[in-house]
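To the structural biology subgroup,

Please find below the input and predicted structure for HTH cro/C1-type domain-containing protein, which we are adding to the shared reference set this quarter. The sequence is reproduced verbatim from the submission form. If anyone notices a discrepancy with their own records, reply to this email rather than editing the shared folder directly, so we keep one authoritative version.
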Amino acid sequence: MDLGVMIQYYRTKNGMTQKDLASGICSISYLSKMENGSIQPKDDLAELLFERLDISFSEITSYDEDDINKKIQQLYKKIQQNDHDSSTSLVEELERIITPFHRTETQNFFLLVHFYYLINERDSEKFSLMAPEVLRLENTFYEEKKYYYCKIIGLYYQLISYPNKSNEYFEKARFLLEEHTLKDPEIYYLLALSLTSMKKPAYSNYYCQMATDQFANEFLYSKVTDCYILYGINYTILEAYDLAENYLKQVLHSKPMGHTSDVREQAKHYLAVLSYWKEEYDVAINFFDDTVTEDLHSDQVLEKYLILSKINYIKGELDQAKEYLNKGKELLKKEKHVSFQHRFFILDHQIHGTIGEFHFIRKAEKVLLPFFEETEDSTSYNEVVQILANIHYDREEFQVATEYFKKLMIK
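Predicted structure (tokenized):
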């Protein structure tokens, strides 16, 4: 690696002139010759220059491309293990040592895994800014790294509520996993998760069982717990409420499973959701009241506020409904979650009695229905169709209402 070119890169990056950097170390003309490649600096002189640039000379010269790629692989594993401190330390180290002078393949690999880190940290502002650049890299990875790419992009789409796109990439990852005889049971869990989001719980349970078996064989019991929670969600969707409750209560009351507070809060959250779908509203409220919001993911907090607002709306407690509605809307200012934005929009108009207004109807027809159809959110899609059918029926626009009722039958 050309030290002179690196010195010039870090000097301009730090906004320093050649005079600033050379002062007391070497002449400006000597520094200029180093930077243009006319001479190769001695290590002791280069070390002084890098020290002034606040760069570790030993660190930046001790890694070759293979070492850096191993570090990136290590970072990927630490993220996968949810080891926040180690992964953060590795990101900071790699940001220091990787420069534009390393191979493009190395830079791209780090960009991808850094993106994975931001997704895992749920830093939506940063990963949203990085996403366009990462999405352009799809055709630059091959074999195992292509597997990483498909898995990470699937996670990205899952997080921003495009489960059909996430499922597409998880399927690609599964194919690559099996084609190259790689080992990663998590991909079956992620496939199951995307299918649950697409309201395909039976298919989800198929992959969830594959994940459960492999996690158990590897003694990854925290991952088995994740699968049990997913079974609970799936059986809730299937309206097999007794089975759903059995899985979730196993997590809540089993010491090996519910050994951490965040796992217990997850179980209580989904027991609350289950109670809501059983129309046991007071039970749902009690479970939600017993959850620690700080231990939930932002999408679960949004779901909590949405359901609590709906329950209070159903019970005629409009002030309470508006309170939870406003909490959800405040959180949505920080979280870019399109699905919840649309669902809170619907509830807002229901609570305020404005669903018959032109603005609502137009957005429902032109934005909400296409979005929920594209993301395969059949529950929200049917809700909007039902609202539009009722609006047109109440207006005695029976032909239009009939078309919407037909959509309900088809879906």
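Summary notes: The CA atoms of residues 34 and 394 lie 81 Å apart. The mean pLDDT is 92.

Regards,
Lab coordination
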